[in-house]
Amino acid sequence: MVRFKHRYITVEIASPLVPDSKPLNLRPKIFHDSVLNKIQQLHGDFGIASIRNGFLTKYCNETTRIALIRARHGPHRFVTSSLPFITKIDKLDVRLNTLHVGATLKHSFKFIQKHQRAYLDSMWSKLKTDEERKQLEMAVMDFKKTDVAINIENIA
After folding, report:
1. Domain 6-155 = CATH 3.30.70.3250
2. Where primarily located (predicted)?
């Protein structure tokens, strides 16, 4: 039995047209397909074939604009080299910044939690009521925003 190593790539999605206080209308499936299309465009069939097995969008939070991608170790370099070239996701102008590349999901989520806590602290000063603050905290610290359907399709 062979053990496959994975890398988890934490990506920040920056959109200059949408203010920071509003969430992006971004589904993990659309994000996933945009990354695959750019890898196809830049690295061709070899790039797609090397990352296809084990490539998943694990997490996508529209409020904090953070996404987590899983790729196999080695071909993850195709993914990380393609991310800066993605300028459009669906009809939205974006810029993708790679924040962290980790070996385990646990450390990637620790990094995301620390990053989102800093985001939450900066946004709290702009909110007026405690109700708005609680809603923002629930949205920011929600780690269950994963589209399971696309992951099941890609595992099989």
Report:
1. yes
2. nucleus
